[in-house]
Design goal:
The chain is an alpha+beta fold. It has 2 domains: 94 residues, Glutaredoxin, CATH 3.40.30.10; 101 residues, Glutathione S-transferase Yfyf (Class Pi), Chain A, domain 2. The protein is built from 9 helices and 5 strands. Strand 1, helix 1 and strand 2 form a beta-alpha-beta unit. It is globular and about 50 Å long. It starts with 7 loop residues before the first strand and ends with a strand.
């Protein structure tokens, strides 16, 4: 029987923050009603529940709103964590996400959209390198950022590394970040990542409900 009181997730397929949220939901086996947003044409329903009106936004059945991707990730895995993704030091997890969402994301945006900023694309790329090198160092001798098993450390930052690598894949492949490249390629080929990347049409009020996953 279909659940009529599912949480509602406003998402955008290619947004790394929204990918982070969807990865958490799928890893936890939590179903939501997915509403795919076109960022240049945001629905009023999204603006009504979140002042920021940026994806992802999760509206719970009790009307509580989570509009930070990391909060959605933790909420989902807090409900159920069959893969043990939360088997990681929470302070370490928060520190890594802070580094990712702070200076690295600023440099990533400058690298992707250099015309919007004062520095050159190459300068933003150089600014992102210390963080990427720290991830590569973590992966020396182990498959995942936290050790031999995948954790929330991986799914919290992988969408952003994916976005960075895609800007100039030839440069990324030749950057010497070999362990990071292999880690990323393994994730991109994984069943978990593939499960969060189907395409959905733009949601509009009155459309049939899309249950995800």
């Amino acid at each position: 029987m279909e659940n009529n009181s599912l949480p509602v997730l406003y998402s955008f397929r290619r947004c790394p923050y929204a990918m982070r949220a969807r990865l958490g939901l799928v890893a936890a086996g939590v179903q939501v009603e997915l509403r795919e947003v076109v960022l240049r044409d945001k629905p009023e329903e999204l603006r009504a529940v979140s002042e920021k009106a940026t994806v992802p936004v999760l509206v719970l059945p009790d009307a509580a709103v989570l509009d930070e991707s990391f909060d959605i990730l933790l909420w989902a895995l807090g409900r159920d964590d069959p893969r043990g993704f939360l088997n990681v030091d929470q302070n370490e997890l928060r520190s890594l996400v802070s580094d990712n969402d702070g200076d690295f994301k600023k440099n990533l945006d400058g690298y992707k959209y250099p015309d919007w900023n004062e520095l050159s694309r190459e300068e933003y790329r150089e600014g992102a390198l210390p963080y990427l090198k720290s991830l590569n160092a973590r992966l020396t001798g182990q498959k995942y950022l936290g050790g031999d098993n995948a954790t929330a450390l991986d799914i919290a930052v992988m969408p952003f590394v994916r976005q960075f690598a895609a800007i100039d894949r030839e440069w990324f492949d030749g950057s010497g970040l070999d362990d990071l490249r292999n880690w990323l390629d393994d994730w991109l080929a994984s069943e978990l990542f593939q499960s969060v990347m189907p395409k959905y049409p733009q949601w509009r009020a009155g459309d049939p409900r899309t249950v995800f996953p």
